[in-house]
Every structure is written in C-alpha cells, then in structure tokens.
Amino acid sequence: MGETRIAGRGPWLREAIQPGEQDEAALEGAQRADVCIVGGGMAGMWTALELKQRKPELDIAIVEADILGGGASGRNSGMVLSQWAKFAALQAFCGTADAIRLGHVFGNSASELDAFFRTEGIDIEFRRDGWIWGATCRRHVGSWRGILAALAQHGLTPFREVTAAEITAMTGSKSFLAGIHDPTAATIHPGKLARGLRKVVLKRGIRVYENSAMARLERGRPAVVHTAKGSIAAERVVLTMNAWSTSIPELRAAILVIASEDAVTEPIPDLLEKLGYKEKPLMGDSQLFVTGFRTTRDHRFNPGVTGGVIGFGGLNGGRWEGRSPREDVIRACVERGYPELAKVPFADSWFGPIDRTRSGLPLFGALPGHPHIFYGYGFSGNGVATTPIAGRILASLALDLKDEWSGCGLVRPAERWLPPEPIRYIGAHMVRAAIARKDRLDHLDRTPGPIVRALAGLAPGGITTSRVSK
After folding, report:
1. Which end of the chain has the least Cβ crowding within 10 Å, N or C?
2. Is-contact 304 292, C-beta < 8 A?
3. Cβ(390)–Cβ(376) under 8 Å?
4. Who's near 117: CB < 8 A, 6+ residues apart?
5. CA 460 to CA 361: how far, in whole Å?
6. CA–CA separation, 278 and 57 (whole Å)
7. Is 282 helix (H, G, I), strand (E, B) or coil?
C-alpha cells in the first residue's frame, strides 16, 4: 500500500481524498475469486455491492488500473438525471411496458442515491436541484417535443414545458428561449460519491486491488485476469471498463470514445445571488455537443462540455491529468448561457474519456462464446444515475438469474456500429467537425448543407439525444 496520490487529479477527488489515505495493495501472485470485476468505477462498485447483498458468501474481487473511482466516476459533473429524455430508445430496445418500468426506475435514481448514502452516513452533497433542458437559439426551440409527445401517449409527464420568463425566474439566465423542467434531477459531489462508495465496498468485505491494470484476459473456465504482477482465476468475470472497453475486441465497435471537459470557479456566492443562480436548477443546452451548467454547495460555478475526440484507437495512455486543453470552448458556452459569468476565471479545469453508444443507452451482456464473461459499458455521460441499475443487471447476469434485470432490453449484443481504424479515427473527426459547424450555424439561424447535416446525423446519443438502432 501507499498513500493515495492526489497530484494531477481533478478537484473533486483532491477534495474527497483524505490526508494519509492509503491505496489498496496491487494484485500480486496467483489468486482466486468467485467473481472478478475488472474496472472499479461506479458500475463496478455497484455491481460488487449488489452481488454481495444478494449472496453474502460470494468471494468478490475488484481489479482496478488506478484507484476506485479514479476515472469518469470521480471527475464528472455530478448531475443525476433520469433517462426519460431517451424514452424512444428505451421503447425500441425494451418494448413499451418495460421502457416505462425502466423509466421510473431510472427516474428514482436520485432518491435512491440520497437514501443509500444517508443510511451509510456519507455526505455526497446531495441537492435536489431539478434540471432544465433548454434552447439558446430559435432553431433548437422545441427539440424536446417529440419526446414529450411519445411520453404523453402513455400518460407520462416527467417534464414540464417552461417559457423564457420562467427559466429566467428559476435560474437568472436571460439567454434561454424555452425549455422543459424535470424536478427530480439532483446534483452530487462526484469525488465524495466515488470515495464514499469505495468505503462501503471495503466495509462489505469485497477485495480490492488498486493500481492493477488488466494486461490479459484468459477466457477459459475459469477465466483468468492477468495484471503486471499477479492473476485472479474466477468462475465469473464482469468487465466494467468504461471507455477502456475498447481494449476488448468484441466491445470496441459499439462505442465512440470522446472527451468530456469541465471547469470550476472559486466560490462566488454574492455574484450567483445577484444573478439569481444560487442553489438553482442545473442546466443543459440543446446542442449536439452537450453543454451543461451547475453550482456546488459552496457556490462555485461548474460548466462542462463534450465533443473532443480522444486518440487513434480510442485511448492513448492510462491517465488523464491536468487542465482541459479546451477552456476556450467551455468559456464560449458560458458566454452563450450566462454571459455575466464568462469573465470569471476558472480556478481549475479537467478532462477525460467517456464512452458513447449510438443510442445513448448502456449495453449489457456476455461476450460471444463466453457465457461466464459479462460486460456493462456505454453510459454516455449519465453514469451517476444509471450505474446503480447497471449493478442490478450485471449481478443478475453473473448469478445466472432469469429476472426483470437480466431479461430487460438493455441486455443485448454489442452493436458493430463503428468501423475499424484508421477509418474510425478519420470519420470521428469528420463527424465532430460537422457537429460543431451545425451547432454554430444553428445559432446564426442558418441551415447547414446536406453533407454537414448527414455527418452530424451520425452523432452518438448523449444526455438528451438518442439514435435508435436495434
């Protein structure tokens, strides 16, 4: 063991890691387990806890390349959103009845997170802020109406349409022309959630090996997970590797790895109070490149964007450290939504990979030909709300249960959506450029050409958009 390194990490983990905390020992020697989970982010930890709750006698081990929660789980924007905005995709994969059931389950995620961590005595800075999905240009107004109509057909009204005046009253922003409001959404402190979840995992007696990247996976029975200095043989292996799922050939073609980037100011309570955005709803703009805003409990302003393409082959290197290289892009989004905040300096910024599926919904299942090796990935920027449910699905799969979780439509083969390299890399940059151009022209009230429209139409699903393909 060694003291947990905080240098180079994003602010959430720097704030959540306590002085003197030790990493769990790296994997060494030949070990065994009933279940080995590869990847110690939120999905991996929730899966381990769900398995332990259902079968306390199970010997469960988590193998993590960094520290538990050291990836997207500890550096996201802390937004807890339902999946009602993706109802059409849920309906296509799961059927209407199960889409409605899952919609309610995902919609209750914020309340369940709050209850779980309160019971454990862990403060994750939970705030029931609500969420506004709005439009800052005329061409984006009403982009949510198809979803509202689909939901209304089944008597579902999770959102309420709000006018520009209502948005100004609720958030202080005068830039949004219209939108919809979801009162169930919440915000949390990502670092405190990740470290709190780690604490519960260790308390439950789940073995954890940190700083132990999987170097090789033997797919026999039992499967064997190899690291630099050791191995674990297990009857069941669960892969919850987020963007690093691209290292598994069967999973690579189903996700596009892009960058998610955030920034945060110093505490500015007086300015937020003056603008009317102190302890108010988190915001999302109706762009293909997701733009969001929220505030923290200590009154920092936290904007975030997506849209950077990361590396040939999906990922380069193991760690993502330092400030975002696109602070100018983040600031331009602030200028569009909160021009009064655009000149406030960023105290820090950070970036890292996320795994986007075509539909914007996660994928679960077993590797073809290997019914004892399972996967769960593709959370598309909404993992805080969806990974607790992922844990239920993966636990049912690993235990060979035939129930509502293992039988839901999110359990499906990994879609071969993306071409191999180098076409994938070149194509990703072409689509990225088209999306950026379309977003820019939309704000100028101009129509992009057919090639730009066609390329932008290939964008994978995000927090609000989805591409339905079965």
Report:
1. C
2. yes
3. yes
4. 123, 124, 126, 193, 196
5. 10
6. 47
7. strand
Query: Two tokens at 318?
Result: 């193991």
Torsion sign over Cα 256, 314, 294, 435? negative
Are 391 and 50 spatial neighbours (Cβ–Cβ below 8 Å)?
A: yes
> For the segment 93-144, what is each residue's pLDDT rounded down to a tens digit?
999 999 999 999 999 999 999 999 999 999 999 999 999 999 999 999 999 9
Do residues 452 and 351 make contact, with C-beta atoms less than 8 angstroms apart? no
Give Cα separations from 64 to 27, 69, 198, 229 (angstroms): 9, 9, 12, 13
Q: Would you put residue 313 in left (φ > 0), alpha (ψ -120 to 50) or beta?
A: left
Q: Which two tokens stand for residue 348?
A: 């820090």
Number of neighbouring beta carbons within 10 Å of residue 34:
16
Residue 416, token pair as written in the block: 């071969």
The residue among 86, 456, 461 whose CA lies nearest residue 256 is 461
Indicate the residue type of 36: C
Residue 171 Ramachandran class (φ > 0 left, ψ -120 to 50 alpha, else beta): alpha
The one-character DSSP state at 357 is -
The one-character DSSP state at 79 is: E
* pLDDT given for residue 172 in this prediction: 96
Greatest C-alpha distance within the chain = 64
Q: First and final CA of the chain: distance in angstroms?
A: 46
Q: Which residue has the tokens 């939901």?
A: 151
Per the CB < 8 A criterion, the answer to whether 374 and 397 are in contact is: yes
CA distance 448 to 193: 42
What pLDDT does residue 257 have? Answer: 87
- pLDDT at position 443: 87
Distance of CA 56 to the CA centre of its chain: 28
Environment class of residue 30 by beta-carbon count within 10 Å: exposed (0-12), middle (13-18) or buried (19+)?
A: exposed
CB atoms within 10 A of CB 437: 17
Angle (CA) 442-446-451 rounded to 5° is 85
Q: Are 180 and 160 in contact (CB under 8 A)?
A: yes
pLDDT under 70 in the chain at which residues?
A: 309-320, 462-470
CA-based nearest residue to 143, from 282, 288, 281, 280: 288
CB crowding 458-470: b at 16 or more within 10 Å, else e: bbbbbbbbbbbee
DSSP summary character for residue 411: B
What is the distance between the alpha carbons of residues 382 and 360, in angstroms, rounded to a whole number? Answer: 9
Confidence (pLDDT) at 307: 80
| Integer Cα distance of 176 and 168 in angstroms | 8
Lookup: tokens for 146: 């198809």
3-state secondary structure of 224: strand
- pLDDT value, residue 256: 86
CA quadruple 437, 439, 445, 449: dihedral sign: positive
